[in-house]
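ENTRY TYPE: paired fold submission
RECORD: A
CONTENT: sequence, then structure tokens
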Amino acid sequence: MFGLSLSTAKRSFDSLSEQEILGLAISSEEDDARIYLAYADQLRATAPQSAKVFEDMAEVEHTHRNMLIEMHRERFGERIPLIRREHVRGFYDRKPDWLRKNQTLDQIRTEAELMEQGAYRFYMAAAQRTSDAGIRKLLGDLALAEQGHEEIAGMLGEKHVTEEAKTEEDEGARRQFILTYVQPGLAGLMDGSVSTLAPIFAAAFATGDTWSTFLIGLSASVGAGISMGFTEAAHDDGKLSGRGSPIKRGLASGIMTALGGLGHALPYLIPHFWTATITAAIVVFFELWAIAFIQNRYMETPFWRAAMQVVLGGSLVLAAGVLIGQG
């Protein structure tokens, strides 16, 4: 019953009066201006040129809001109806605040472009569906205004964000991504993959029991993941180093550590010993080469140096586990 009442509470766009359409347009302009200012605040420290673009776009939204308020005052008086886009079925949506946080610069730019395009398409479609001449004209004017917003956004981008500034901002975002996610995740993957090789394969050859080996591998992987995650989160709060949120880094490190160990522990769910062991060895081969690739791709480590460090080191640990298990 409650879900039904929420669904039926929304009105169709065709049922709105001209005054309500103006009220809806005013509240939408206010929301978009607030979103652009939030983007500006988010980008000011890392991408100041792009932040200026969004400040100017918010100013444009405020200008159109004031124009709509004046139109409402002339035609309907001072009382603007309280109606927002979430009150109307089919109206273009905006993401809530918690989904807009921590977006990359490219994601923010794309979202702003979609905001303007979505508003334009909605007003044009709504204008075509109505037979009332006054509403049709009003919707058409709003559509043209939104199209103008998109053109202004392009001009503002050319004005404030040079190609050099955009390259610097993109490089800064990439560097932050590496420091917050790639570096701790790679350290965790290396630790989880290499450090669990010896105990897992030693247990396999010592017991010959795949289920016991899996349990040992599972406990070693989960334990190592928890340990690495807490260590990464606790040793650096990111304020001075600029490495970002300790929680994000801890999660990246802990999850990748656990996955690194589970990769060659899961094959021991196969009941046949040699099938499980050969499968685990194949998984280890791909794990080690994947680590070397990530080091080369993101950490700019020469590929063959990364291969020697990781693949050779991992192979030695694997051999040590097998020898210990057979002894």
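RECORD: B
CONTENT: sequence, then structure tokens
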Amino acid sequence: MQYRQLGSSDLQVSEISLGSWLTYGVGVEADKARACLDRAFDVGINFVDTANIYGRGAAESFLGEALQGRGRDSYVLATKLYFPMTAEDRGLSRAQVEKQLDASLKRLRTDVIDLYQCHRYDDETPLEETMRALSDAVRSGKVRFLGFSEWPADKIRAAIEMAGVEKFVSSQPQYSLLWRAPEAEVIPLSAANGISQIVWSPLGQGVLTGKYLPGQAPAKGTRATSEEMGGFISRLMRDDVLAAVQRLKPLAAEAGLSMGQFALAWVLREPNVASAIIGASRPEQVEENAAASGAKVDPALFAEAERILSVLG
């Protein structure tokens, strides 16, 4: 496993990280989730990402229990806030930052969160209020570093330019061969200001592994058939997308990688990406994905993959 510095922080994070969106505490049984977590540590993954909204606290609670007994300095723990935990509790106001941070610390059974992230931008709260509340969280010692997820470039720029507040070190966008929007503004802006990307859905919800075939129903037990985990995959399950992805198979084979490893290596070709977040329901998936770290791929193969997928709307 290779490691990269997370923005301007002093954190070194594994190129492949383990996420808990739609899985731990919700869509995956506890024993299987624990086996995935154990395998992640076995293969050198040191970065675990979650959020208060995942299972409305269930994912944090699972991790809080499962991480007991491991040295706190042996892993980097990230969580988020913004989405509604109750009818009243949502957003990035000072009151919510303070309330949700304390609740996350309790569920995670830790005194400090390494990376505390704004899960989305809050249009209903002044940015200065949010940044000052987050800065106070860092200065209190409850949080080490700050990040955001899916913020528009103008809001990122405004936070960067604000005086007297702690600076963001990470951005968490969706980014993959099937979704390249961050390349336009977010990545260049971040790279110029000490902010790294930790990307979600680098495998396009599993579509880029090639396991879904055009004209065929998805196999039982896959994410596309899961009521808990399949809600975000429908837009990628079009036959034209699935057919184009199948054309990547010989490219991955030439690189000596599985299709999933090839897709992860493509994301990691970008220097501003510190880590690619994977979801896993089986330990074998963790091990296979982790093997993408450090892969050396001919840039011509990546260029051909981009060309093949560029025709998709």
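NOTES ON RECORD B: The chain has a mean pLDDT of 92. The CA atoms of residues 146 and 168 lie 5 Å apart.
STATUS: closed
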